[in-house]
Amino acid sequence: MKPAGPRGRRQTRLAGTPIVPGIGIGAVTFADEPALAITRQKIAAPYIAPELHQFEAAAAQSRKQLPRLNARLAGLPDAAQAEIAPLLDAHIHMLGNSRLMRAIRTAIAERLVSAATAVIDITEDQAQAVRNGPRHGDDGAAARQADEISDIGRRLLRNLTRLPFRSFADLPQGSVLVVERLRPADAALINPAQFAGIATEEGSAEDHTAVMLRAIGVPAVLGIAGLLAAVRQDAMVVLDGEAGTLIVHPSPASLDEAARLRAVFARGQRSLGRLRRLASETLDHVPIELQANLELPFELPMVAQSGATGIGLMRSEFLFMNQDILPDEDRQFATYREAVLAMDGDPVTIRLLDWGGDKQSDGPGAELIPNTHETNPALGLRGVRLLLQHKTLLETQLAALLRAAAFGPVRIMIPMVCCLTELIAVRQAMLRVWRRLEAAQIRLPAEPPPLGVMIETPAAALNAATLAREAAFFAIGTNDLTMYTLAVDRAVAGTVALYDPLDPAVLKLIGMTIAAARQADIPVSLCGELASRTGAVPLLIGLGLRQFSMHGGAVLRIKRAVRATDSRTCADLAAAALAATGAAAVHALIDGAAA
Ligand code: PEP
Ligand code: MG
User: Fold this and answer.
1) Whole-angstrom Cα distance, residue 591 to residue 27?
2) pLDDT tens digit string along 573-588?
3) Ligand 1 atom, smallest distance to 476 CA
């Protein structure tokens, strides 16, 4: 029998994907979705097709979400499964070719209303009709069916409007934030001092939200199956961001244990601090450069103190999130210059905007991404492809970067490159902007900054030798490289087991990239989440990597791993991993090496 929590409630332990280590003890708070401020809208005939298209995309998105939830129910206790599974089945059925969906399409096409208006009107009508319909002895069943229709309506509207949760600020201090799904733009709004922990039902370790949460540093577990069904507002919970668990209604013994673990964790963090002044080198004195990734500006002081020798990846997407207008050149310049000055002479690698894929915009950027609502945005217009189609966007950012480079060593990095033509096109744009700024006598560095590329598509890795002829440096982005190599979505929790950067196929591409960079004598770093995995350090060193870039909070932990590694044994480990039968065999190899 399970131990009883406070007031006799049963303790329940849920499991998800560990994202940010640390123990959070607190009361559950839900982030209410902002009220969907949708005004009913009539549309003109030419807008019927685009509105239908948007509706179909939202429906497709909803159909994708539900089986994902369903697939993860297996981890729940039987009773909870029995309760939730039929509900999800009913929702999946209703999102198919149901009367509800047909009526919404007809409303758009014949009543000439927007997709959102049609969803509101039709779901309200049908839910009402069910409530008022003939009774067959079970009033509860009709009410439940009506609620299901309203739920479907809410899901469709959420996917149609893509509104972020903007109401975090008023939530109670020290609580554990529970949401179904957190998007990168939502995560960017979280104040790290506010929450003891963050738990979501959807999400996976390498999606962009996870990257954001690591930057924020609040203990977090994503992808907890059955989370929303298991917790209520104000329920006491213990979140363990290292074990990836959430205990609901913890017993007094579990609470004591959590408080003990929290103290152990805090002591561990303090002891890491002593490494700050020690060299980052292996046991046999091979220097390994450790740089930091920067997600959000508030990390700057922490990154500057992290023991990192520069910023290996400053993502610029945050500047474009939750904005009403695109940031102009001066606004961008001020932000980049701040980072350059804070790093006090250490290099700052700033990546051009990587919009698209799982990094979606709600504000002005949304119009720039024509495939925002398509079912497969990761394969659409993203990163450099988008920038090359929006010259003003690209050139505004380049101008801001060139100006910031006058204040310290800046490197400019291009995302989502596949081939040399893209690098050359960006370089031409950069030189055009340089000449314009020079003519206007704007303060610039002595020469244009190094222009390098992310290696995050299999095409780029395969073209690495060609790219290395023109690129000033490489940064390997294993988050995307893994997704595109293994054909597994990095943001889909249901496929987490298939997504593994330690798969030999990904390792081969990493190895090829490092070899091409060395051959051409250009620097190469790895800035995906793999760089912060302690167990992978000897393997990556064995593949020839000498420069890692990771979220600031991981730098000292990785330094400790580097200092415990003998590089002379790493090459054999890497060779064995490249020849391994699959990711599981690579895990066994690195576990064996660590033992
Ligand atoms: C990557 O893909 O590994 C990477 C660092 O870029 P992002 O996570 O921002 O896509
Ligand atoms: Mg990437």
Assistant:
1) 37
2) 999 999 999 999 999 9
3) 3
Question: Residue of the nearest CA to atom 7 in ligand 1?
Answer: 479
Beta bridge partners of 175: 195
Tell me how far the alpha carbon of residue 96 is from its chain's centroid. Answer: 29
| Cα–Cα distance for residue pair 315/529, rounded to 1 Å | 13
Task: Record the tokens describing residue 572, joined without a space.
Answer: 């054999």
- Per residue in 25-40, pLDDT (tens digit) is 999 999 866 566 677 7
Q: Give the mutation target among 480, 488, 513 for probing the ligand 1 site: most ligand atoms within 8 A of CB.
A: 480
For atom 1 of ligand 1, the residue with the nearest CA is 477
Q: Which of 207, 474, 479 to mutate to test the pocket of ligand 1 (most atoms within 8 A of CB)?
A: 479
Among 121, 60, 69, 129, residue whose Cα is nearest residue 96:
60
Q: Which ligand has the shortest distance to the CA of 295? A: 1
Cα angle: 58, vertex 383, 190; to 5 degrees: 65
Report how far ligand 1's centroid is from the alpha carbon of 478 (Å).
Answer: 7
| CA pair distance 131, 146, nearest whole angstrom | 6
C-alpha of 406 from chain center: 31
- Other Cβ atoms closer than 10 A to 42: 10
* Cα–ligand 1 centroid distance for 477 (angstroms): 5
Which residues participate in catalysis according to the annotation? 208, 527
Does residue 113 sit in helix, strand or coil? Answer: strand
Tokens 């103190």: give the residue.
305
Q: Which two three-digit tokens encode residue 59? A: 């429906």
Residue nearest to atom 8 of ligand 1 (CA): 479
Token code pair at residue 162: 């893509």
Ligand 2 centroid, distance to 479 Cα (angstroms) = 6
Whole-number Å distance, alpha carbon 103 to ligand 2 midpoint, is 40
Tell me the two tokens of residue 325. 């207008």
Which is nearest to 253 in space by CA: 475, 3, 449, 436?
3
User: What residues line ligand 1, using a CB cutoff of 6 Å?
Assistant: 211, 313, 315, 354, 456, 477-480, 527-528
CA distances from 356 to 161, 166, 368 (A): 17, 21, 9
pTM (two decimals): 0.74
181: tokens are: 């799904």
C-alpha neighbours within 13 Å on the C-beta side of residue 504: 15
Cβ contact 307:276 at 8 Å: yes
What is the residue-averaged pLDDT of the chain? 87
**523 is written with which tokens?**
């620097």
pLDDT digits (tens, 9 = 90+) for 419-458: 999 999 999 999 999 999 999 999 999 999 999 999 999 9
At what angle are helices 504-520 and 570-578 packed, to 10 degrees?
A: 130
Residue nearest (by alpha carbon) to ligand 1 atom 6: 477
**Among residues 199, 192, 246, which one has the least CA distance to residue 222?**
199
Half-sphere exposure of 482 (CA within 13 A, CB side): 25
